[in-house]
Amino acid sequence: MAGASLDALAVDAARVPEIKQTKAALYLDAGEAYALKQKLGDKAYFVDVRTRAEIAYVGMATVADAHIPYVEHSDDAPWDDKNGRFKLDVNSDFGPELARRLAAKGLGKDDTIILMCRSGDRSARAANLLKDLGYAKVYSVVDGFEGDLAKDGTQSGQRVVNGWKNASLPWSYKLDKNKLYFPKY
Fold first, then answer.
1. Helix %, strand %, coil % for the chain, to 5?
2. CA triplet 154, 59, 53: central angle to 5 degrees?
3. What are the domain boundaries of the chain?
4. How far, in Å, CA of 26 to CA of 143, rounded?
5. Given pLDDT bands bounded at 50, 70 and 90, which one contains residue 166?
6. What class, spelled out in words, does domain 6-174 have in CATH?
7. 3-state secondary structure at position 144
8. What is the pTM of this model?
């Protein structure tokens, strides 16, 4: 890791599935995200963009600086037949909350930001939003916290292929309240 360039860490953009592609084409796998955060320390800001329920029941990477959901379930969320779950709405406070937290750390739009969701598609959408807001170095963790679904075998349909947890990277069910997002109703 020492001396490695950011380009040497990045996942090959040509191999990223379309749903996980971003406008900036900056990608890391979970192991690379961990290594980059270790290398840059406080010069990189690592954000878990999953819903509050996901981190509450599935855990969170201990090196994440913050939890700011990109999407969230409203209290009266209707059922989404297409996706087989309750409807998710974009968190309109995502960009402003990130800006507030970055400013509190002395960071800005030119600093390295690492985004991670469950499996890489929501972090890609969040990265696109940040690109539109003028952020220059936003990486999406393509395999996310839980990883991709196994396509066959006895674990078909389970998230056991890759991802933060499957790579045995540091995480915990015990959450740090100071890192968590609380909606401003």
1. 30, 20, 50
2. 95
3. 6-174
4. 13
5. confident
6. alpha beta
7. coil
8. 0.90
